[in-house]
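Final report, closing paragraph on structural work. Over the funding period we assembled a curated collection of sequence-structure pairs, and we close with a single example.
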Amino acid sequence: MKIAYLPALFTVMLLAACSPKSSPPTGEGWMFQPIVKLDEYNPIMVSDRSTVFYCPMRKENVRWEEKDVFNPAAVVRDERVWLLYRAEDNLELVAGTSRIGLANSRDGLAFRKNAIPVLYPDKDKMRDYEWQGGCEDPRIVKRDDGLYIMTYTAYDGKIARLAVATSRDLIEWNKEGLAFNSKRYIDGWSKSGALVCSLQNGQIIATKIDGKYWMYWGDTDLFMATSDDCIRWEPVEDKKGNLVSVLKPRPGFFDSRLVEPGPFALTTNDGILMIYNSANSASNGDKTLASDAYSVGQALFDKKNPKRLLARADKNFMVPEKSYEIGGQVGNVCFVEGMVYFGGRWLLYYGTADSRIAVAEVRR
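Its predicted structure, as stored:
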């Protein structure tokens, strides 16, 4: 499999997107433009009943990715693209237990998987939060000291809680614990943490604003949190102690039921570009989309004040339309969690119908 490189103009525009600019955005120039789904390769990953893993909780071998694979994070390391993806077994629970697997690729298109997962429920400090639902929906960035930061969902079968893990090599991971440890949030529903980052020498690096790291999170509205170290986070609250909502669903639009962060939020010359996932309401949504269809939108926030929304696209730029996106565990789903700048282009990695993994290329 080979990589087709984008025209030089696109590369120039991408580099320019990382330089300072004071003027506000105008028109649609701040957005990634419509994507190209790479159907010559899609889906790039499917379930596999041949891989077996000894589960320390069940005390038996399980086919850990037998049911479905989806919702991958992505990062570039050693001139390869690495995917951290959610995989489900087919035991007991309706949806199975989720674990996070690892795969790598020299071209970003054909991936070789590790035989066993790298993050999974175990007899450790996270046991009560991860069993039996599992470890779900990773997102990954790098801190400026080289430490990889993974946010993921710890799911006990009843409550989803945003959690953090760290690694130096993508293989051995340390579970740092829940992102929010205050009594107010520890037993509340939280997930989908997307850190504010910048593109630095081809690497996506977590970026401080006014001395703090910032993260968008949530799967109804979008909320925010800040941190000194990318590990322990404090939700952003207003003066009354309520969570500050920075992006809400919109009646009549593709994102009418919920909004949820995609991969990291990218600092550009216009602001902080957020690719987000959304669901369409059955009662007051976009009538051109199926009820509850998940598609992908874009929003822009102020890079000096990440809570301030500057612009928002009225139209989604990725919708479920291919057979591998329409049929599956949950139909009509495109759910982006991975993005890399690799080989002179942006590649997006996304879950399809909660069953498979696909890749698309962003062009501007």
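The domain at 137-362 is CATH 2.115.10.20 (Tachylectin-2; Chain A). The chain has a mean pLDDT of 92. We thank the funder for supporting this effort.
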